[in-house]
Design brief:
By secondary structure, the chain is mostly helical. The chain has 19 helices and four strands. Strand 3 and strand 4 form a beta hairpin. It starts with a helix and ends in a 9-residue tail after the last strand.
Length: 585
């Protein structure tokens, strides 16, 4: 085990967590790995995943011009036949997560009673938000409300182009970017963090199924679970990278040509592939720097850039209108959240929005969940279940609604009460230009356009970084620390897959890849709700057991320690006088 891995598993390595909570198994993360040529790989998951990814790429190239139509057909087929399942499953995830947070299990600490937080609250929030929503919010925050203003979601039944349609547009957008996606991420992150840090199992999806499979997680059942996870991660990430690079391409062209009149950059598939290559190179350098040196630093920069752009538009834009739209949008969202969460459009009310938008989003979030969930798990040791859930579920979701109200609300203001230039440009040039067309309507539009483009680039890099780290964990048998060469390899592979999908079938290929890989993974997540419950229940029983109470009594008698308990006397924290965790290094 490397020094980095020993540090990652933390001070619990010889403490109470190992003695009382870890399963009775002689297996260790990556204990069957092959270590050659600077790689440290799982002997089955790594080569099989690579082979299947290569086959998918060859198939896309082989289909040629038929790839786009094939991907479109598959996207529509899944949306029409499994859309109801996506909606039902994600609602179950929200209910499950809230139950964990507000039940007796909410006081259980991730990593055990000795664990301490690895990152500050601000750094934690910056990293999880950058990984979870960045590129998508930049891409859709203006274009989605403008789309709904003209094509009102069937659930609301308002007249297009009116104030009622604008209210419906904000509510529907909040729905897609609010609590539901973060519930998916939170459930996955909680399961991975608990079974890795509280049970000492590999940081891979197979570990979540320990209560059902036991040591068989190290056999073929576990291999299949991790392979599905690799696919969901890689293609969900490719979707985001493809959307991001399309917006970067448009942003550079629109700001440089239309807004500044300085230069004209061609737009299209070839320039976007070139941009993917350039930005993947930057991401590779960041990946090589690791979690602390690369991802954490860039995530913090992202957050500062987001606040700068958000604050500027709040000041120079229609401030009162933005906050009014935010409050009214929240009211429409909360007022309809239960009904809209289960709305499929089957009963003749118009389900085009559900198939084209909601099902795609839910499939995309589910495909992204291994990536975001594992990344959140990796940075969340030392937080209670309740703190974890409230932090992951509510704060990013509410911030997303403020961001959407600021950018989407400004675009709606320009459409309903201004010149209408933003929506005219959107209708003429498409989604990728919507953000820049809206910014052009306010002071220093070229400057904010450049800042927005830079922000998409940094989000691209952090997403690629985080995704590489996650795929590394999966293909190295769950090790917390993997060789630099392996991280670089997956960063390059992600960029390559995104480029080939973009070339082979455009946006439809990217969307289909996300929704298709998300479907089998949705079934895994449903089963995961039960296995996480079993794990937390077992943890609670041990914390309440006589054996644990006797151990705590012995500790307090032999050493000078502080023991923190809840109202029901369940121990939630143990620390020495110098605030070092008991049993630490």
């Amino acid at each position: 085990m490397s020094d980095g891995e020993e540090e990652a598993v933390g001070e619990m390595s010889e403490g109470l967590q190992v003695e009382l909570f870890h399963p009775d198994s002689d297996r260790e993360p990556g204990d069957t790995n092959i270590q050659r040529f600077g790689f440290d790989i799982h002997p089955i998951v790594f080569p099989v995943a690579l082979l299947l990814i290569a086959a998918f790429v060859v198939l896309t190239i082989g289909l040629g011009e038929d790839a786009a139509s094939a991907y479109t057909w598959l996207f529509n087929f899944i949306g029409e036949n499994f859309g109801w399942f996506y909606l039902l499953a994600v609602n179950v995830f929200i209910i499950t997560l809230l139950f964990f947070a507000f039940s007796k299990y909410g006081n259980i600490k991730i990593g055990g009673v000795e664990a301490e937080k690895e990152f500050s609250d601000f750094a934690w929030m910056a990293m999880l938000f950058s990984a979870g929503m960045g590129i998508g919010l930049m891409f859709f925050s203006v274009s989605e409300p403008l789309y709904y203003l003209q094509t009102v979601p069937g659930f609301f039944g308002a007249e297009a182009g009116t104030g009622a349609a604008a209210s419906a547009a904000m509510a529907q957008t909040f729905f897609h970017w609010g609590f539901h996606p973060w519930a998916i991420y939170g459930l996955v992150g909680l399961g991975l963090a608990f079974f890795s840090f509280n049970r000492g199992l590999p940081l891979t999806f197979r570990s979540i199924f320990w209560p059902l499979l036991g040591d068989r997680i190290y056999g073929w059942p576990g291999h299949v679970i991790d392979l599905v996870t690799v696919f969901a991660t890689l293609f969900g990430l490719a979707t985001s990278l493809g959307l991001g690079v399309a917006q970067i391409n448009t942003g550079l062209s629109y700001v440089g040509g239309d807004m500044l009149g300085l230069f004209s950059i061609p737009t299209g598939t070839i320039p976007q592939i070139v941009l993917i290559a350039i930005i993947t190179g930057i991401a590779t350098l960041s990946v090589a720097a690791g979690l602390e040196g690369g991802v954490k630093r860039l995530s913090t920069i992202n957050l500062y850039l987001m606040f700068a752009l958000l604050g500027f538009l709040l000041i120079v834009g229609p401030t009162v209108y933005i906050f009014g739209a935010w409050v009214e949008g929240l009211g429409a969202y909360f007022g309809n959240i239960l009904a809209i969460s289960f709305f499929t459009g089957t009963l003749g009310q118009g389900g085009s929005t559900v198939t084209a938008w909601t099902v795609f989003y839910w499939g995309w979030w589910i495909a992204w969940s291994p990536f975001v969930g594992m990344f959140i798990a990796r940075i969340s040791r030392g937080r209670t279940v309740r703190e974890f859930v409230l932090g992951v579920l509510f704060l990013p979701a509410l911030f997303s609604t403020l961001w959407l109200s600021t950018f989407g609300g400004s675009a709606l203001f320009n459409t309903l009460e201004g010149s209408g230039a933003a929506i005219a440009t959107y209708n003429e040039l498409g989604q990728t230009v919507a953000m820049f067309a809206m910014l052009q309507q306010f002071p220093l539009g070229a400057v904010t356009g450049i800042l927005a483009t830079l922000l998409v680039v940094t989000f691209f890099v952090t997403s690629s970084d985080s995704g590489s780290l996650v795929v590394d964990h999966l293909t190295s048998g769950g090790k917390h620390d993997v060789p630099r060469a392996q991280r670089i390899f997956w960063a390059v592979t992600e960029g390559l897959v995104a480029a080939i999908l973009l070339w082979g079938g455009g946006l439809s290929a990217l969307q289909t890849a996300a929704i298709t890989t998300g479907l089998p993974f949705a079934f895994i997540l449903c089963l995961m709700c039960y296995t996480v419950y079993l794990g937390l229940s077992n943890e609670y029983e041990i914390l309440e057991s006589e054996e644990f109470a006797e151990t705590i009594e012995e500790l307090t008698a032999d050493e000078d320690v502080d023991v923190v308990t809840t109202g029901d006397q369940m121990v939630t924290d143990i620390s020495a006088e110098d605030d070092e965790a008991v049993g630490g290094d």
